[in-house]
Structure formats: structure tokens, C-alpha cells
Design goal:
heterodimer; A: 505 residues; mainly alpha; B: 222 residues; 7-stranded antiparallel sheet; 6-stranded antiparallel sheet; 3 helices; 29% helix; elongated
């Protein structure tokens, strides 16, 4: 009777009693993971140390955890002597954002650095903006830092390679997510996972010391788990796993809070369906999900509060100003105006918003250009003509995804809850990003938005790609995915080439 | 015909076309610059009175070079002739070249000399052989290099651009790029590591993608 009730609620027969079986990795996924690993390792070993956005500070955070057993913020030096001098010799001073400057190409500076002898690694940990980040990713990176030892560069590159493993998680998550949405259709799964694992900014960011790699992985797995719950039904085990993962998201990066409304939707719908299906004690899986989230996320809030750290990254409030709040009508109106001008030209009655130059351009400059291809410290770009092509490709994928959704709806094959969940995840992420950008601009006249910040929902982009392919006749689907993979492969090679050309010619 | 073939053909054609375009672009993009001193010409790095000289030292020779370009300010007068010498750190003359008089204010002047090999550390000195003062341009940027004039050290750096003996395409430069990329990495990483990765990326990856595509199409057809 219990099994029948779960079946009515959408849970596959027996799944609540039997432990999931470990199955072998599908061959197409295994091959794709090998491809992603090759490109991930290439990026990790090719980009000079410190040449991803904010990478020196992220390395410094990890070093502070290992060497000082403390969060950054209280140290005397911003970065340790070891990191400072090592990067200085490797980068011949500094090459950041200046394409006329190249790092060291010969061994002489390496020998000079080596001849200095021991450099202290525990005198860093000073205040850096990234020091406000939650610690999960940095704790993950302490493992290779500690295990590899050796020179500063041995540890940095070990941390990068370790980060690449998270890209494999992202790719696998996108594969599984597409499997939940489209069923066991390998070609479509390959399209979705291929885009998620081989989109150049995803690979570039995942192959550096930067918490974005963990954020991509957590979001992708959370999207898969959420859809899985909505398709197969909420169980205590899936509720705990899902809630804990959403909780881990806020230990990873403040962006993780953007997933909370979508997760609430999943748990609420899951509970409602159990109840409607007559499952016994439907509140238990719901409570399990909520409790695991509260426990994990609450642990971060308690830890941060106890240590006097902010729960989320926040800019300092200059004297005479107040922090923007959504409880203020003025702020809501101004925030609305900011969002409008981010995407669209300013309307005659709107006040011009700082940094928007009449409005509309940041959508293209920020989301599109730096979301597809902006390497190094964003100064390494592909040829200019390629960015409109990315714009067209993105529009085709989005429109194709929407068309696939509309077609599936006409055939009554769409679960509205899944659409709502994915939409809430995207909207939640964009809300968090825009609110952060708006707050920083208001308080510090400093825009913080970058295209890579939208990449936690790259798996939704993968779904759109797969949905676009699904619109084609069956016999055209494999050629379309072949074209997509060839385009991604070429794009990876082109991106690696411009990055090598920038640093090593 | 297997279900996989159309996909494989499209993939192969598109991948070959993509790689060919990249190779063509890299082959057509020719470079003359060997390496630079990481200083931009923001202002005078030194003032050279008639007969005076200034040296930039130490300079890691990052690539073979047989010429150097330097931006020179002249306060609006025709530029004075310059002698440019490359010496070892102990003062042994390795190469020498000259810049003729009469160049305009703020222009970039090039002196050719016999080839210096990559890997060594040298000094580069400019001597004013004319009767008007000139000033090489640069900025204060590099910690372990600077200028020395009349025995006095300065942290200012001259904006020097060393040139290649021959024009080289970016494609030609791939081996040296791999060599450059191996510096300040894992101790065991060498240029060979990047050759292995390049072979994997250009040959292994397409094979893996084709395999993934073929298996996916076959499994979908089951």
C-alpha cells in the first residue's frame, strides 16, 4: 500500500526502499569527461599564476587557512611574503590587465627566486575583498595545498588541477539534468553536458583558483537534484540531500542564496504531490529537506556570526549613507530603474544610472562579452567580430529552448513545476547578482558584475541547447550535436591560442 | 548507413574547418617583437646630457634578439645620435648598435646589433653621442631591474622592445610559446608537457568527441 502511494506521488516503485545502484558511466559521458579534463588541464597549466580574476587573493585565502589556521582579515600583510615575491618574479613585476607586459619566460628569474631561500607563507592573511567569502571552496583547496607541499607554484598548480575536478562534476551534473528532462536520449544529453563543460569561460574559471568552479558544480548538481525530485517524487533521502546541497551553496559563495527560492519551490511541490497522492506522512520528507538546509546553512550563519564575519559579501557603507534596503520604496524604484537600464535604453523620465551610459549596453558588455570569452583579468579577448556571433548563438539557443518548451507544452509533456523551478533558479541568481551590483554602485560607485557570474546556470544553457536540437528531426539531431561539439572544440582552441599569444609571444 | 555517420561527418568537417581556420590565422599573423622590458613609455626614465650614458640592468634575455627599439624624447629638437651597447653583467661587450641623429621628439628608434641569445642576463646601455640632451622614455615598474647612471641606481625602467632577427608567424612561435609557458610551473613541467597537451587537444579530443557522438547516436538508435 505504501509503495502504491509513492507511485501515485510520482516516486518509482521501490525507490524509497532500495539503495540506488551504482551503474557504469555511459560511454559518451566518459569520453566527454576525458575531453573536458584535457582542456581543463591545458587551461590550468597554461595560464600564468595569478592571472585569473582575483586569483592571488583566492590563493591567499587558502594559504591563510593552512598556514595561519585563520580566515583572512587579521594578518599584517595582504598576501604572504612567499606569495607576493613568487608572483612578482613569475610576472616580472605585474602583468595584470596590461597586454604589453609578459611574464617571465626563462629560468633565470626562477633561479633568482629560488636563491632567496625560505620565504614565509604565514605572514599574509590581511584584509582582501574576497576574505568575506564563505570558506567551503577554500577548505576544499587546502587539501592539495597541504598534500602537495613543495614550492609555492607546485601548490598553486595542484590547487588548479584540483579545481578542474569540479568541472567534471559540473559536466556530469548537466548530463544527469538533461537525462531527467529529456529521458535517456544520449545525443541530447551530450549536447547539454558538452555546452556546460566546454563553454570557454566555464573551463577557464574552473581551471583556476577561484570559488566559481565550486559554485558551478553545486548549482548544476542542485538543479539536477531538484528536477529529479520533481520528476520522481520527494523522499526523505532526496529531501536531505537536496536541502544539504542548497545549504552547502551558501558555504561556497553568497550567490548560493539565489537558489533558496527555487529550492523552496521544489520542496513545497514535492510535499504537495505526496499529500495529493495519499503518501503516508508526507511532511517527513519536507521536514527532512528543510531541516538539512537549516542545519547546513544555519551552521554557516552561526559560524560567521560567532567570528564577527558577514554572512554575505557586503560593501562598506560610506559616512552619511545608508545601505540600500528593499523595504524602502525609493530603493525599489531606483533598483528597478537600474535593472531597466542594465538591459534597455533609459526612458525619458528615468534618471541616468551611474555607469550605464544611457542604458542597454551592459547587457551586451557584461553578460555576453565577459560571459563567453574574457580571459586573464578580462583583458584577453577573442577577435571582436566573434562577440556578435556569440550573441546570435545565445539568442538561437534561448529561443530554441523556449520553442522546445512550447512544443512540449502543446503535447502536454511539460511539468509546470520543473519549469517554475528552473525559472526561479535563473531569476534568483540574476536577482542576487543585480542586487549586489546595485548595492556596490550605490555605495562605492563600483560596478562588480561580470559575465562569469551567470555561469552557475550554465546547465540551463545546456538544456536550451539540447532543447534546440530536439526541435530537429531525429536524423538531424546527431549532425547538429556534431556541429555544436566542433564549434566548442574550435572555440576552446581559439581561446587557448589567444591566451597563449597574450602571455607567451 | 549507421545512424552515427551523418553526425560524425558533420563533426569532422566542422572540426577540420575550425582547426584549419585557426592554423591559417596563426600562420598569417607575423611578429617582429622578441620581448619587452615590462615598462611603458609614460615619461623620462633618465636624462642623457651630451656624452652621458644610462644602463638598464639586469635584463633577462627572454628570446633571441638582434635589435632594440626605444622611445626617445628630445624636447622638440632633432634627436642626437645614440650608441646602444649590450654587455654582460660583468661589463663584457656582447653587441653594439647605433641610432642616427635627426629623429623627431618622442619617436621610437631602433638600433640593430649582432644577435644575443636567450637565457642570459645582460645590461643595455644608451650613450648620447650628440650635442643636445635626450631622454629615453619609461616608467618605474620592475622590482629587480632598473637604470644605472653615473654609478647611481634608479628604480626607473626604460621602455625597451627587443626585436627578432626574422619575422616569425605565431604558428612558428608555438614551440617557443610552450617553452615560455613551462617557466614557474610544477617542477616537472617542461615544454614537452604542452606538446603532449597539444597533441591530445588537436588529435585526441576530436577522436573522443567523435566516439562520444557515435556512441550517443548508437544508444539513441537502440
Amino acid at each position: 500500500m505504501v509503495a502504491r502511494a509513492y507511485i501515485r506521488a510520482g516516486v518509482p516503485s521501490g525507490s524509497h526502499t532500495r539503495a540506488p545502484r551504482l551503474r557504469s558511466v555511459p560511454a559518451p559521458l566518459a569520453a566527454l569527461l576525458a575531453v573536458v579534463l584535457v582542456f581543463g588541464a591545458s587551461w590550468a597549466l597554461m595560464v600564468p599564476p595569478g592571472q585569473l580574476p582575483d586569483e592571488p587573493n583566492h590563493i591567499g585565502y587558502t594559504q591563510s587557512l593552512v598556514e595561519r589556521h585563520a580566515f583572512p582579515g587579521g594578518g599584517h600583510r595582504t598576501l604572504s611574503t612567499e606569495e607576493d615575491l613568487s608572483l612578482y618574479y613569475a610576472l616580472r613585476g605585474d602583468v595584470t590587465r596590461d597586454i604589453l607586459k609578459q611574464p617571465a619566460w626563462i629560468k633565470a628569474p626562477e633561479r633568482r627566486l629560488h636563491s632567496i631561500g625560505h620565504l614565509p607563507g604565514s605572514d599574509g592573511g590581511g584584509p582582501v575583498p574576497q576574505g568575506q567569502n564563505p570558506p567551503l571552496y577554500y577548505a576544499y583547496e587546502t587539501l592539495p595545498y597541504w598534500a602537495v607541499g613543495g614550492s609555492f607554484f607546485d601548490r598553486v598548480y595542484a590547487m588548479r588541477i584540483w579545481s578542474v575536478l569540479l568541472l567534471l562534476v559540473t559536466t556530469t551534473g548537466a548530463w544527469l539534468l538533461a537525462g531527467e528532462i529529456f529521458g535517456r536520449r544520449r545525443t541530447l544529453q551530450l549536447a547539454a553536458a558538452g555546452l556546460a563543460g566546454l563553454q570557454p569561460m566555464v573551463t577557464f574559471m574552473s581551471a583556476g583558483v577561484n570559488p566559481d568552479s565550486g559554485t558551478f558544480a553545486i548549482w548544476t548538481i542542485a538543479l539536477w537534484l531538484g528536477v529529479r525530485i520533481l520528476r520522481r517524487g520527494l523522499t526523505p533521502a532526496s529531501g536531505v540531500a537536496f536541502g544539504a546541497l542548497i545549504g552547502l551553496g551558501v558555504w561556497e559563495k553568497a550567490t548560493g542564496w539565489g537558489l533558496v527560492p527555487a529550492a523552496a519551490c521544489v520542496l513545497a511541490v514535492g510535499w504537495w504531490r505526496l499529500r495529493r497522492g495519499g503518501a503516508p506522512r508526507p511532511a517527513i520528507p519536507l521536514a527532512a529537506g528543510l531541516a538539512s538546509f537549516a542545519l547546513v546553512a544555519g551552521a554557516w550563519i552561526a559560524t560567521a556570526t560567532a567570528l564577527g564575519r558577514p554572512v554575505i559579501n557586503q560593501p562598506k557603507v560610506p559616512p552619511g549613507m545608508t545601505r540600500p534596503s528593499l523595504t524602502s520604496l525609493h530603493t525599489v524604484r531606483e533598483f528597478g530603474s537600474y535593472v531597466w537600464q542594465f538591459y534597455l535604453p533609459k526612458l525619458p523620465f528615468q534618471n541616468p544610472f551611474w555607469g550605464m551610459n544611457g542604458g542597454g549596453h551592459r547587457f551586451y558588455d557584461t553578460w555576453l562579452r565577459t560571459g563567453w570569452a574574457a580571459f586573464g583579468w578580462l583583458e584577453v579577448r577573442l577577435p571582436e567580430w566573434m562577440y556578435p556571433v556569440f550573441g546570435i548563438a545565445s539568442a538561437v539557443l534561448i529561443l530554441g529552448g523556449v520553442a522546445a518548451l512550447a512544443r512540449a507544452d502543446l503535447r502536454r509533456r511539460v511539468d509546470a513545476a520543473i519549469v517554475a523551478f528552473l525559472l526561479l533558479a535563473v531569476v534568483g541568481l540574476f536577482f542576487v547578482l543585480h542586487w549586489a551590483d546595485y548595492t556596490y554602485i550605490t555605495l562605492q560607485r563600483h560596478a562588480v558584475e561580470q559575465g562569469r557570474y551567470v555561469l552557475p546556470v550554465i546547465a540551463v544553457g545546456g538544456l536550451a541547447a539540447a532543447g534546440t536540437v530536439s526541435l530537429l528531426r531525429r536524423r538531424w539531431q546527431a549532425p547538429a550535436v556534431g556541429l555544436l561539439l566542433a564549434a566548442l572544440l574550435t572555440l576552446q582552441l581559439a581561446s587557448l591560442a589567444v591566451t597563449m599569444e597574450r602571455y607567451f609571444v | 548507413m549507421s545512424r552515427a555517420w551523418p553526425g560524425l561527418i558533420v563533426f569532422a568537417l566542422a572540426a577540420v574547418a575550425g582547426v584549419a581556420v585557426l592554423a591559417w590565422r596563426a600562420g598569417a599573423d607575423e611578429r617582429t617583437i622578441a620581448f619587452r622590458i615590462a615598462a611603458l613609455p609614460r615619461g623620462p626614465a633618465a636624462v642623457l646630457a651630451p656624452g652621458a650614458s644610462v644602463c638598464q640592468t639586469p635584463i633577462d634575455v627572454q628570446e633571441d634578439s638582434d635589435a632594440v627599439s626605444v622611445p626617445v624624447g628630445t624636447s622638440g629638437r632633432p634627436g642626437a645620435p645614440l650608441t646602444i651597447s649590450v654587455t654582460g653583467l660583468r661589463g663584457r661587450l656582447l653587441a653594439q648598435g647605433r641610432v642616427r641623429a635627426g629623429y623627431p621628439d618622442g619617436s621610437v628608434q631602433t638600433a640593430r646589433f649582432s644577435r644575443i641569445r636567450s637565457g642570459g642576463t645582460v645590461s643595455l646601455c644608451l650613450r648620447n653621442d650628440g650635442r643636445e640632451p635626450v631622454y629615453p622614455l619609461g616608467e618605474d615598474v620592475v622590482l629587480d631591474s632598473g637604470t644605472v647612471q653615473a654609478g647611481r641606481k634608479s628604480t626607473m625602467d626604460i621602455s625597451l622592445t627587443f626585436l627578432r632577427p626574422h619575422r616569425r608567424s605565431v604558428l612558428d612561435l608555438v614551440p617557443s610559446m610552450f617553452r615560455h609557458a613551462a617557466v614557474f610551473r610544477f617542477g616537472w613541467v617542461g615544454a614537452w608537457t604542452y606538446w603532449v597537451l597539444a597533441v591530445l587537444a588537436v588529435l585526441g579530443v576530436p577522436i573522443l568527441c567523435a566516439y562520444a557522438l557515435a556512441r550517443a547516436a548508437r544508444e539513441d538508435g537502440d
